[in-house]
Design goal:
The protein is α+β, with helices and mostly antiparallel strands. It contains three helices and five strands. 27% of the residues lie in helices and 31% in strands. Strands 1, 2, 3, 4 and 5 form a five-stranded antiparallel β-sheet that branches.
Length: 154
């Protein structure tokens, strides 16, 4: 009788193994090797202002590979930063919210000077102690030159 039970148990195990239930009766396999821990990412200082958007480099103002709108934004940023630093040396940088900018073509005159572009949006003036949100306005001329930049605190 003992032999019959043993054959029956082995037969059931073989049948269950064929039906996919074998792992229930099989020995546990050793755990899969775990991947090596990755080093913690290096924290980089975020630019002032909200996340997102790209900042044009000053060299983009004259680069033929850059979109003409971004050329004007780069020129406006460079000129505005230069003027702000003259008045307030504590200004470190300007972060322009590129995603929220309004960039418009114009056919107007300011006195006798033709205005061909208007750029409006949010800008953050980074100072040595804080950065603050400002409305930003820039007027550009016929050749993309910056005619006027203006900031106002919100």
């Amino acid at each position: 009788m003992m032999t019959a039970c043993r054959h029956f148990t082995l037969g059931c195990a073989a049948l269950l193994s064929l039906l996919g239930a074998g792992p229930l009766l099989a020995q546990q396999a050793p755990p899969a090797p775990q991947p090596a821990p990755q080093p913690a990412p290096v924290e980089q200082k975020a630019p002032p202002g909200p996340p997102g958007g790209t900042q044009p480099d000053a060299s983009a103002a004259k680069s033929p590979e850059v979109d003409p709108d971004m050329q004007r934004v780069a020129a406006c940023k460079a000129e505005a930063l230069k003027k702000l630093k003259q008045r307030s040396p504590s200004v470190d940088d300007i972060y322009i919210d590129i995603d929220g900018l309004t960039i418009a073509q114009a056919d107007a005159k300011l006195g006798d000077t033709p205005v061909k572009g208007v750029i409006m949006g949010e800008a953050y003036i980074q100072r040595d102690r804080s950065d603050s949100a400002n409305r930003f306005l820039c007027l550009t001329g016929a050749k993309g030159e910056v005619l006027f930049t203006f900031f106002t605190e919100r």
